[in-house]
Amino acid sequence: MINGISCMRCHDQGMRNAKDQIRAAVVNGRVQSREVREQIEALHPPAEKMDRLIANDAKCFQSAMLRAGLDPTVSSMAWK
Predict the structure, then answer these.
(1) Does 79 score more than 60 pLDDT?
(2) How far apart are alpha carbons 61 and 25 in whole angstroms?
(3) Model pTM score
(4) CA 13, CA 65: separation in Å to the nearest integer?
(5) 37: Cβ contacts below 8 Å, ≥ 6 apart
């Protein structure tokens, strides 16, 4: 239970939007082998796609909160 509460302090609105620095560094850097670059491309989608995935996740998260009877606009930061 403590782990879940710790996560919710930062993720009270769902996944946080962060910029991926790995993809650009590896794919554009050409230091790594082609195989490694292909694996990174597969694991790290382009920023536009990742932004859409996170936005969709946020909508699902807010919908689940509403179904649970919670107000998704109230931040858990208030309970600290």
Answers:
(1) no
(2) 31
(3) 0.67
(4) 9
(5) 26, 27, 30
Print the domain residue range for 71: 2-79
- Angle CA(13)–CA(15)–CA(20) in degrees, nearest 5? 140
Q: Is 3 helix (H, G, I), strand (E, B) or coil?
A: helix
Q: How many domains does the chain have?
A: 1
Q: What's the pLDDT tens digit per position in 21-72? A: 899 889 888 789 999 999 999 999 999 999 999 999 989 988 998 999 988 7
* CA 23 – CA 47 distance, rounded (Å): 9
Structure tokens at 30: 């050409």
